[in-house]
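2024-03-11 09:14:02 DEBUG pipeline.ingest accepted 1 chain
2024-03-11 09:14:02 DEBUG pipeline.ingest length=145
2024-03-11 09:14:03 DEBUG pipeline.predict start
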Amino acid sequence: MTVQDPNVVATSGTGSAADGTRTARVVRSVDHPADGVTVVAVGGEIDMLTAPELRADVLGRLDGGDTLVLDMSSVSFLGSAGLAVLVEASQHAQRRGTAFRVVAVERAVIRPLAATGLGEVFSVHGSVAEALAAVRAADGESSAG
């Protein structure tokens, strides 16, 4: 029989496993490289403890109407709760007629996206520069049409 210590909760961030707290901030920085475009860099572990923070931040920014580029270059773990946030953000952006793009370079993010097929559901890019170029190209197409 395997017994797991119920006090072992924290795997990243600050806080003590003994007291069951974890105060990791997943949103690391926010940038506005162009009018109507917001880049949010996130890092650490996106799991059931940190996904609510990410969800609130991302959905709130999408409500503002800007194109959102979510830079996940510094994410070390992407759990199912994090995947659910990405799906919800993509759907939220579609309902609002705005763009949602994801930057994924780490295996910890790319692998779950590929395994679930979600990499095909929304725009995934290898760098922020690539995502911004795709935003500019899409804006050019919509203004030309």
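2024-03-11 09:14:41 DEBUG pipeline.report Residues 77 and 108 are 5 Å apart (CA to CA).
2024-03-11 09:14:41 DEBUG pipeline.predict end
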